[in-house]
Every structure is written in structure tokens, then in C-alpha cells.
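Field log, afternoon session.

UNIT: design team B
ACTIVITY: writing a sequence onto a fixed backbone
BACKBONE:
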């Protein structure tokens, strides 16, 4: 094995996931500590032009697996592609974003390569040549440290916004093309159609800004003001479990321990009291703004800023002021 660190750069239909580039920060530090360098891996169809983006964030070499079989995410095919890169690169450490694709892919690659695996890391460091991964446990009440021994491949997914991306520079990297080799088992799943959204609203796990609404919105129609604020901020719309259970929003937007865990730069909670399961899903956000008429609501204990005010008054005003600022 080499002492290099391989960072998986996630892309869907040519659109790169920004959280992937953040991993080049811990990847570069770990590689430097091991006496190696940070490298990148991109998998997909028609991805030749994407290698320069990874280079501009510090990747010294970019491995690309470009094949028609990889046009859409397929677990077996993508796991085979990344495993092929690992074999060619001889890397010791593989980092992936803690997205839906990253978590699924990390587990499959680790199983194929008999590697050590930690999911949803908040911090990565070195103890000698071993990786030490820190992650939240028991609904965020505790943090645990896990050591991955250096005598085997080490795979980890890292939360979005746990690190900032390296400063972007004008740089180039060595590009290496890796052929795709699939078994019959890797081809079992065939993707015929990818269902998406036409609303322009991002997924909560991939957005830097999330605006969430609770049961206080009272109806699906009233969530319109949440969507308008999210669009003004170029963010995602989230919802509490109570709002989803009431049918105001689909469960795909649910934030919480039983929904999706988010770590955006900015989280705005509108009419959400702050049940334990919801707090566990968003307390890792960098800045939390709470809007609630109940001064004693638990959400205020974790909020960076609190607004004791009716959300139906404040949210439209925020949207209006943001739209004014953007226009000016």
C-alpha cells in the first residue's frame, strides 16, 4: 500500500457535490502525516472535464473511471469502479462524503476490500500511522473515537461542512484513466429512470443552508413561505417529524434521528419546538436560527440566534429583505 489518501469526488449527471472537495482538507493533512499525497477518484460517464475541478482543490492525481455503464449510480458497478481505482492506486485511506451515495458506496467497497470502516465522521486525525475517527453517538449526546489500524485499507465517510474545502487555485493534476471491469453480479441492477424534483429545491443532506418547518405551519399550503425563504437563500427545505406525519411534507424532507441527519452552515428552524430526535438530526449545524413563539422551547438551548416571534410574520419579512438585498 502507498501512503496516499484517495478522496471520492461524487458527481451526478456531471454536477459535482461540493462536500466532496471539503474532504481534500483532512485528506491532505492525513497524507502529509503519512508521507504521501492527496489523490482523487471520479466515477461516471463523460466525466473527463471534471478532473480539473479536483486538481484546483489540491488533488495531485485524479483517477477517472469513465464508462457508459456508470451513467447513473448503480451500487455494484460503482463499487467495482472504486475498488479498481484502489487496486491501481495502492492507496491506504479512502474518504467519501457522508451522502446517501457515499454511505452506500463506502460500505460496499469496505466489504469487498476487507477494510476498516467508520461512517459519519466529524473529525479525522492520526495516531502514528493509524486513523482516529471521531463521530457522534447516542443521538449526539456523546462522541466516540475509533481507531482504524494501518495494516489494512481504511475507509471513512465524513459529514458535510465538518471541514472547509481548501482554497481553490489554478492547478493541474496527473490524470489516470482506469478501465471498468464488471462481473455478472455487478450488472444485476439496471437503472431505467431517475426520479427527480422540478422544484429547484435541494436535498437537505446536500445543502449548505436548510430552512425547516414544524407542525406550527398547520398545512402543506402554508409551507409555501418556507419554500420561498429557502429559494431566496439557495437552500433546501426540511421538516420536523410531526410535520411529515401530518402530511405537510414528504418524509424525504424529514430532519431528525428517524429522518435525515444534516450539518449545514446555516439551519433555520421555523415553528419547531425541538424534540430530542429532531435536535439529534441538526445540532451539528454551524449556525442555528430558531423562530418560535414559545420562549421555553428546547430548540433555543441549541440555537445560535433565537427569534421569539410568529413565523408567519417573520419568515415572509426575511424573504422580502433577502430578495431586496439580492436585487441590489
Amino acid at each position: 500500500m502507498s501512503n496516499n489518501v484517495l478522496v471520492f469526488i461524487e458527481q451526478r449527471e456531471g454536477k459535482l457535490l461540493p462536500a466532496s472537495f471539503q474532504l481534500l482538507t483532512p485528506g491532505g493533512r492525513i497524507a502529509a502525516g503519512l508521507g504521501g499525497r492527496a489523490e482523487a477518484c471520479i466515477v461516471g460517464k463523460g466525466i473527463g472535464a471534471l478532473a480539473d475541478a479536483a486538481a484546483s482543490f489540491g488533488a495531485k492525481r485524479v483517477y477517472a473511471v469513465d464508462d457508459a455503464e456508470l451513467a447513473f449510480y448503480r451500487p455494484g458497478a460503482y463499487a467495482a469502479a472504486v475498488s479498481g481505482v484502489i487496486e491501481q492506486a495502492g492507496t491506504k485511506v479512502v474518504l467519501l462524503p457522508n451522502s446517501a451515495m457515499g454511505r452506500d458506496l463506502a460500505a460496499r467497497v469496505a466489504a469487498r476490500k476487507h477494510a476498516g470502516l467508520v461512517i459519519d465522521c466529524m473529525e479525522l486525525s492520526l495516531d502514528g500511522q493509524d486513523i482516529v475517527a471521531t463521530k457522534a453517538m447516542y443521538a449526539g449526546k456523546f462522541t466516540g473515537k475509533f481507531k482504524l489500524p494501518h495494516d489494512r485499507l481504511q475507509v471513512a465517510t465524513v459529514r458535510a461542512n465538518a471541514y472547509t474545502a481548501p482554497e481553490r487555485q489554478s492547478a493541474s493534476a496527473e490524470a489516470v484513466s482506469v478501465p471498468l471491469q464488471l462481473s455478472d453480479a455487478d450488472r444485476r441492477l439496471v437503472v431505467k429512470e431517475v426520479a427527480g424534483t422540478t422544484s429547484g429545491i435541494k436535498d437537505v443532506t446536500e445543502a449548505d443552508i436548510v430552512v425547516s418547518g414544524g407542525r406550527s405551519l398547520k398545512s402543506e399550503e402554508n409551507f409555501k413561505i418556507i419554500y420561498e425563504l429557502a429559494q431566496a437563500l439557495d437552500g433546501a427545505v426540511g421538516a420536523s417529524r410531526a410535520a411529515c406525519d401530518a402530511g405537510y411534507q414528504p418524509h424525504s424532507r424529514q430532519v431528525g434521528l428517524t429522518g435525515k441527519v444534516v450539518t449545514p452552515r446555516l439551519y433555520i428552524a421555523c415553528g419547531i419546538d425541538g424534540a430530542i430526535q429532531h435536535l439529534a438530526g441538526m445540532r451539528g449545524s454551524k449556525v442555528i436560527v430558531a423562530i418560535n413563539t414559545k420562549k421555553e422551547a428546547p430548540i433555543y438551548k441549541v440555537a445560535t440566534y433565537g427569534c421569539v416571534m410568529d413565523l408567519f410574520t417573520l419568515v415572509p419579512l426575511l424573504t422580502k429583505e433577502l430578495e431586496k438585498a439580492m436585487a441590489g
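LOG NOTE: Residues 293 and 310 are 6 Å apart (CA to CA).
NEXT ACTIVITY: expression trials, pending approval
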